[in-house]
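During the reporting period the student researcher (J.K.) took over the structure-prediction task from the postdoctoral fellow and processed the backlog of single-chain submissions. One of the processed entries is reproduced below for the supervisory committee.
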Amino acid sequence: MKTVDNYKKSLSESPKCPHCGASMAIHQHTLGKGLLDTFLLFSRAIKMSMTSSIHLQKQLPLDKNQYNNFQKLRYFSLVSKDTVRSGYWSITEKGLDFIANRIAISISVKTFRNKIVESSNDKGFVNDLITGYSKEYWQKEFPYQIKMSKIVPMESEQVSMF
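J.K. obtained the following structure tokens:
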């Protein structure tokens, strides 16, 4: 109960808008093991469906904690919420590049009212953050890109004859 009491106390002590009483708190989010595991599950489900978006509750076996925290992946630009179909989420180009170990991303962000206000300079590749796999594994497991809302194999570099 002490943790709950501390949480309630921190809420009452967080800065409030003097006009409307809304919270003025800035929240820090870290791309930790839990979020990374959830993103890996999501990425594998996307790969299996060969579409860029899936319905979280119908197509992904997430536990309550994973489901409740899934939306935090958008702070790292790895996923985006489908604005047309309720319950659907999409992997972003950045998400595909990250899961294929092609780019490093900030591992910590600060948000204010669901908007990113600061990203850390500390960056990591997926093979640095999820241990037990080689760099080559990620590149072979997720060699995809998004084209017309579909997940398709990466196009190999074509040599021009002109």
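The committee noted the following: The chain has a mean pLDDT of 86.
J.K. will present the remaining backlog at the next meeting.
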